[in-house]
């Protein structure tokens, strides 16, 4: 990185580390084999590019400059005689605002704490989404359009609380049965109950979910069940 770097290397914010007093959370054994990459890597999701690396040797300096350098290479003139002016492919304002390498980072709608192994719903999303549900509970009225917006937000939350998808079903079926998008109707008690429990799920997501709970881990307990004429027969190991 000291010899080959982006023309905007001087604009890249310095890395941000948590205090030394913050402990490292352990990562539990995985059930799938994930190759260890000690040099770091970058991944792209639509128009968002994230870089991650272990804090070893000069990895941090290399990782923080890798994406701007790659973008510069893709946007460079193909020939020295190219007379067509080209705008920078790199969004400098976004680089200044979001290009800092940090142990805690918001990426694709999630706040990720790599030291404490937590992923959480950003406070802004938590506040707005909770208020939209509370507004429906206070008035006991809503329409298909507003419910569809809430369903989309709740489905996003289910990426870190997969078991909560069960509590979207009745809300979705109720919204689909409404005649028009803007037709306001009274919310029945079962839907009210589901919305109330979703306020708890959102709070849980905002507090942070351990990454160990949303990856494919080695099982610590195994249970098996079989059909039984009376009750439920089964065994555990």
Q: How would you describe what is shown here?
A:
This protein is of the alpha+beta class and 237 residues long. It has two domains: 9-120, no CATH class; 123-207. 35% of the residues lie in helices and 15% in strands. It has helices at 59-75, 92-98, 123-139, 144-157, 169-176, 189-207, and strands spanning 41-45, 48-52, 104-107, 110-113, 118-120, 141-142, 185-186, 209-210, 223-226, 233-236. The protein has a four-stranded antiparallel beta sheet with strand order 3-4-5-8. It has a two-stranded antiparallel sheet with strand order 1-2. β1 (41-45) and β2 form a beta hairpin. α4 packs antiparallel against α5 (169-176). The longest helix is centred in the C-terminal third of the chain and has 19 residues, at 189-207. The protein is extended. The model has no long low-confidence stretch (mean pLDDT 89).
